[in-house]
Amino acid sequence: MKNIVVLGGGESGVGAAILAKQKGYQVFLSDIGKIANEHKKVLLHHAINWEENQHTKASILAANVVVKSPGIPDTIKLIKEIKEKGIPVISEIEFAAQHTQIPIIAITGSNGKTTTTQWIFDVLKRGGLTVEAVGNIGESFAKAVAEKTPDYFVVEVSSFQLDGIKTFRPHIAVLTNITPDHLDRYEGSFEKYTASKFRLIENQTAEDYFIYDSDNEVIKNYVINNNIQGIQIPLSLKPIKGSGTYIEAEDIIIETEKTTIHMPNTKIALQGEHNAKNAMAAATVAKLLKIRKQTIRESLENFQGVEHRLEKVLKINNVQYINDSKATNINATYYALDSMSENTIWIVGGVDKGNNYQELIGLVNEKVKAIICLGVDNEKIKSSFSNCVDTILETSSMQEAVNAAYSIAEKGNTVLLSPACASFDLFENYEDRGRQFKEAIRNL
């Protein structure tokens, strides 16, 4: 019997352990921190051996294969020792993909991947297919492979998950965009981060599809300079020659070798250029899977969007409160600020991932009337924007930040939580941060 060690007792680790147990492995799960009670119950239910608050090296180095949580960097001493012993270290999405024949639709990108994943799920479900949306989005891919047999798995994948693949091969791969993010994990190298994202398509063949944003210079240059095996379907906001999905006049046009379909762009449920791209990606996937045009149109016009992504919470005293907690990098916040009208009170801050705030200065000058910092270290934010706005306040809790925004806000203003940073200094994750924001608004 093969020994498998799972490092990390979060959603993906527990999912990998469940699948490994089902496939007859001897399983041991180890977490250097505390494992949540809900996950412990699942491990006990499946009779899986586990430890928390430590890594017992002897047990780990006895593994035939190690499945590593995406949150654990490759640079730590234990991972180096495992690799030196010749033990393969893979990610949960790789392990899951090795144990299913069901076709995979995989989505990655610096921004927009959750919205695009959910939109693809929505349109395929409306089209009568059974689909599971898994991965970075919620339930682990491995757990879904262990328990479900849909027509398609729609998998949101991060660069960290892609770092640990060997054979992972999506039948349809979607790359939403590439902008600087997580550079702290890639030794400050944008090239390494870009290469990581493109691992999405490294195992594709001529029978697979690669849908990508051809308006993104980084992606466009990579595609020109590298050998891409899958059938390429570029997305663009302007007309393109040959196969692809693009906008012309008021229409989204999806053009393949055999057919062309037109959809009205003006009726898309979510506004903004970035959402037009997300909609185009979802519509293109649906077209490849032969979903009816009418069904695609229904999805584009009625899709509700994703929690914590430009989510309108409440209007109080004619002030709109918007939760964009999922904006954990500069580019996501750029989209958010760009979609605001003027007189925005912007709540920003958290764990900086190597942010360059210069890119936001034009938008801040144009649209932001006050900045409320919400993080342990706000010096970089204050020094970047001190010349742009008169009011910059520091707060140390979400309720304090929302109360401060409430006291500054005037009729017609918008209060926007769009942190541009990770959440781990004051919150469990971006969901916790977004939920606390909504709760604080309800407490006003």
TrEMBL record:
Major localization class: cytoplasm
Which reactions are catalysed by this chain?
Answer: UDP-N-acetyl-alpha-D-muramoyl-L-alanine + D-glutamate + ATP = UDP-N-acetyl-alpha-D-muramoyl-L-alanyl-D-glutamate + ADP + phosphate + H(+)
The entry's ATP-binding residues are G109, S110, N111, G112, K113, T114, T115
Has UniProt tagged this entry with the keyword Membrane? Answer: no
Q: Could you tell me which residue ranges the Mur ligase C-terminal domain spans? A: 308-421
Listed pathway(s): Cell wall biogenesis; peptidoglycan biosynthesis
Q: What InterPro entries does the record tag this protein with?
A: Mur-like_cat_sf, Mur_ligase_C, Mur_ligase_C_dom_sf, Mur_ligase_cen, MurD
A single Gene Ontology CC annotation of this entry is: cytoplasm
One Gene Ontology molecular-function label: ATP binding
Cited function: Cell wall formation. Catalyzes the addition of glutamate to the nucleotide precursor UDP-N-acetylmuramoyl-L-alanine (UMA).
Q: Can you tell me which family this protein belongs to?
A: Belongs to the MurCDEF family.
Task: Output this protein's name.
Answer: UDP-N-acetylmuramoylalanine--D-glutamate ligase
